[in-house]
Amino acid sequence: MREITHHGVRKFFSFSRIEKPVNTNGLILHYYAMRKKYILFLVLICTICKQKMFSQKIYNTWFFGYHSGLDFNTAPPTFLTNPLIEADEPPYYTSSICDSSGNLLFFTDGIKVWNTSRVEMPKPPGRWPWGIDDQVLPLICPYPENDSLYYLFTVGGGGGLNTGKFLFTTINMAANGKAGEIVYPPSPGSANYFTVLADNASFMLAGTAHCNQRDTWIVTITNGALNSFLVSPGGTNTTPVTTLLPVPQSTLSEGYSNIKFSPNGEKLVIPIVSKNEILVYGFNNQTGIFSDPLLLHLPSKELLEDVEISPAGSKLYYASYEYEMDGNDQTGVEFHNIFQLNLESGSAADIEKSRYKVNPFPNRAGCPGPCLIIMRTLQLGPDGKIYVSLRKDKDNGINLIEFPERDREYASYPGNYLRYGKVYKFINVNYIRSASFSPKENGIQVKKKTCLGLPTEFSLLYTKIDSVKWDFGDPTSGASNYSIEITPTHNYKAVNQYTIKAIMYKACHTDTAITQVSIDPDPIVRIPAYIKDTIVCIGNKLMID
């Protein structure tokens, strides 16, 4: 027999076992077996922590798939239409860039470049690397300390003339009355308007901020190694920092998934579609060196489609499918799912054991009748959510993983989150994620929402720091208002809005992160009378109105 007091109400229950908690719109329902009956006990998670998030806007416009796009200057993002972007299936990547206020400057599919008026910038005759039928993976990178010049890095694939070449050219957005111009200024006698940095490159390309928060690392895979090229105010260093791969580069040639950095720049994920494996590296954004590789294996029947990683790099997500079987024969039906792996679990084996299916029901595809095709893509947005494509020739909705940093079901996967109104097919956008997550405005993470008077837990988006000093904005708490712990807690005693600061010390840079947290009063929960006789099975939901 156990006594429970909730808002002054004392109740006595006898419990034989406690089942798994299920989150239901802010309430956690715990199921208790009680002499062949089940009752519900509700624990309220009552503090609402409100943070200013994701205000870096230079990558806030996406174009993708078939005539489609998203504008992240609104929440939720607004759908865009762009008839210049047209592809039936991946791989077809785009990259775009905005000014600091989120106003579009230009965008590209690597083959053509368009300005904000959707007018194509003229290409230098005979000196442009890509033809109309080429397959190109682009990435736009701002020149450090220059608000007019931009690098356009590209990797070629698909068997064209420059397949396997990793190169760059330059865009000057101050030219032509700020309509933009493709330029390349090194020498008047230059035969081309581009510089080749490497040959034999895989169709993979990503970038992240340097430790100094000014320069940028651009990374691709060539000659069996990860190659990190440093972009600084002095230009692009043509001699890369190299890290040999533990797997043959030839295994990376299948599929349409790209390599992806966590926005904090501390991890890189490499999809190995041909082997149904995922390679995870740690990254030193001061030296450009990759280390501590973890090779993760999918279960034997699963076929890898795409990968994604959470902003702080604690969770890895992958999309896969498996065939429905009738004995030893395939029925023509595919079951597509999304899984979470906890990268903080320890060894590769432990990480594989942490596997959790995010979507409650699989998406069916295949050709048992009319063909339904899924070419799943996962794309982390500048708002910190992961956007998930559905059936490419049928669905007009986009799903998302709402809280990628949270564990298991608390990551939240609501169905048909965005209704587009038209078929968009897939989402493949390449951008430098770290630019959307600044240390100042996104450095502090409020990991746990607790009731008034109980500890609130804090952590940092960045884990590779030397030390930190916290100020919880609560001077009445005396010495408890300060901490030097990496993941501290603080007990707020009063309802108020608090400003939290964390000074992060790193070898090459010091940043101050700031956020605000609102501690709200504990509201009274009035449980309807009918609840006491209600039976709810594990995995189902009970809506309390």
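Above is the first protein from milestone M3; the second protein from the same milestone is given next.
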Amino acid sequence: MPLLLLKDLPRYECLLEGAKEFPDLDPSACEAFLHLLRTSDEVFSLVEKDLAVHGISHGRFGVLMLLWNPAQRRIDAAHADGDCPSGPRTPAELADAAGVTRATMTGLIDTLERDGLVRREPDPTDRRMMSVLLTEKAERFLVGISPAHFKLMTRIMAPLSESERKTLVRLLTKVLENASEIAVPAIEPARGPPVTCRVTLLKTLQSIPITMIKKFIIAIGGFAVVVLALGAVKVSQIKAMSGMSHEQPPSSVSSYEAKAVAWQPVIGIIGTLAPVEGVTIAADAEGIIVRVAAENGTSVKAGDLLFEIDTTVEVAQLASLEARAALAKIQSERTAELISKNTISKAEFDTAAAQLAQSNADVAALKATIERKFIRAPFDGRVGIRQVNLGQYVARGRLLVPLQKLDPIYVNFTIPQRHLASLRVGQNVMAKVDSFPAPYPGKIVAINSEVDPSTRNIAVQALLANPGERLRSGMFVQVEVELPAGEPQVVLPATAIAYAPYGNSVYVIEKMKDAGGKEYLGVRQQIVKLGATRGDLVAIEGGVKPGEQVVSAGVFKLRNGAPVQVNNAAQPSASERPKPANT
């Protein structure tokens, strides 16, 4: 904690006046001492602020400087024989050199080691001891901040000449040596107020008027009477309560009759919608789009034109090839006539026939190329948002527009392998989408032939009717797969269950007898095994029989054998498909 900063030091005249009351006060010594404290505190604060700019405290910087000592390193290098001792290296030596306790020095070294500025190594002379050394990071840090630090020292001492600085060092050394020889005696704690304080207190009491003391005594007496009266009233109330009956009054609860219900067992899973037929149309040939026949989102039939790519060059080439094909046909017919008259050889006839076939093939190939630039819908469906524009050049394979058949639509989902025996093709499913309130019925159309070895789930595909194409590919859906019907189950409201780590339980309402044989309506705590949950209801697999009355509200204030009073004026919700008012 910094010393008290006296911005306005006491004047010498004030110190002279104080010396008259305190003979041990030396005015000149006190003045010099106060100036020394003031100056040392100001200089220390200035150095602390300068080091804080570089992110280090004065204590940590002092330890680094003790370890660094570049001047000592040069002496060590000059005396390689070891005659000149090196600086302190062990924590104990550093503590002695810094004038702090070893615990304080250990804390400083731990902080520097966490920051990567020092490291501990076994001492080469004694392996039981640890030496503290600077790291390369600390060397770079000290080299970086030392010029500014030394410059600050020079600026602080700049007003003094060389001789004045030496004189100051000698004077401060004398003061330091004298201070180290002075022993300050321990001060015994005061065991009571000083005599002057007791005299002052007595005089104060004597100065209080008698009338005020009387009023004070009357007030205390009145307060005591009020406290005694309140105490007597409270005692009488406690005695009256102790005489009352300690029987617990019946707790008001709501009841619910356990019912056996044939629930249709289902498996709830998450699925994803996929089109029955879906593809992203791509360009089969390169060129410039000259016509967009189907706008975004329109419904198309199989074979409808979607895009047309420029065929100007191909049409011109087709005319040339058709002309060659016509000439080849004429030549083939002529050679056929001549070969019948044995005018030409068989080879010339075969050559003419081959040229005709090649010309016809070239025409057919170019027509196929032209047809590939008329991009048509491969099936009935709805186009999405096109990814190209009119006049745009497209390369072969460039994606143009998505086309999907949405009615009907697939829903793909996975089911754990333990339910595989309960699955079959044609099984009913129900899909729910958060966008539409009504569920969509469907049937399972395919079960995958293998189980995923990483998740142990099997992929299942169901088909849903999608009139109006409201469902879209990629949507998230909640799917319920109906399993074969099982035995009826006892169901209770979820509010009737007392959940606990050691076992869930319910309270069954029945006639009971107290210790005196008097009959009353009480509750019996019954451990139960819970099954599936549907809406507000929970299936009970064991512990409750159909027809038993079970507490449905007020469970947490009951205990085994507690008396109850049934009040069914307000019942909690107990619906398989609850619809809260705020949803």
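Note on the second protein: The chain has a mean pLDDT of 78.
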